[in-house]
Amino acid sequence: MAEVLNNIVEHGKLGPEQRIRSSVSVLPDGIECSVIDEAPVYRALVEPADSSSLTCEASIQLAEGGYGVFLIQSLAKDIRYIEVEQGNHLEFRIPLTTVSEQIC
């Protein structure tokens, strides 16, 4: 969630009047997250990334914008992007097994 919010603030081109809303639901098998922002449309998180040969150590060397997307895609499941009238809505799930097994 922190990386998603960081990406919105750093790359989302939000104006001072634009908002970010987020929610987290704790489930028996993980957590579900929802983030709605009023930034211009940004689909980079849900576009397929070729990270099949990218190791965790190598991903740290990615250029600006690359590591955050890699981290989110490697930890989150069921990533769903919805373009809303005034921005973006991102939903994703983080299974409990992901947290313990895949962190760098």
Q: How would you characterize the overall build of this protein?
A:
A four-stranded antiparallel β-sheet has the order 1-2-4-3. The protein is globular. β3 and β4 (87-95) form a beta hairpin. The chain is built from four helices and four strands. Mean pLDDT is 77; it is low at 58-63. The protein has 104 residues and is an alpha+beta fold. Helix content is 29%, strand content 32%. The protein has a single domain, classed as Heat Shock Protein 90. It has helices at residues 2-11, 56-59, 66-75, 96-101; strands at residues 20-27, 30-37, 77-84, 87-95.
How many DSSP H or I helices?
4
* Overall form: globular
Mean pLDDT: 77
- What is the end-to-end distance? 16 Å
How much is the radius of gyration in Å?
14 Å
Q: Percent helix among the residues?
A: 25-40%
Oligomer: single chain
Range of strand content: 25-35%
CATH topology: Heat Shock Protein 90
Low-confidence stretches: 58-63
Number of E-state strands: 4
Kindly name the structural category. alpha+beta
Largest sheet: 4 strands, antiparallel
Short synopsis of the structure:
The protein has a single domain, classed as 2-Layer Sandwich (Heat Shock Protein 90), CATH 3.30.565. Helices cover 29% and strands 32% of the residues.
Q: Keywords, please?
A:
single chain; 104 residues; alpha+beta; Heat Shock Protein 90; 4-stranded antiparallel sheet; 4 helices; 4 strands
Topology:
Layout (H helix, E strand, L loop, with lengths): L1 H10 L8 E8 L2 E8 L18 H4 L6 H10 L1 E8 L2 E9 H6 L3
Antiparallel strand pairs: 1-2, 2-4, 3-4
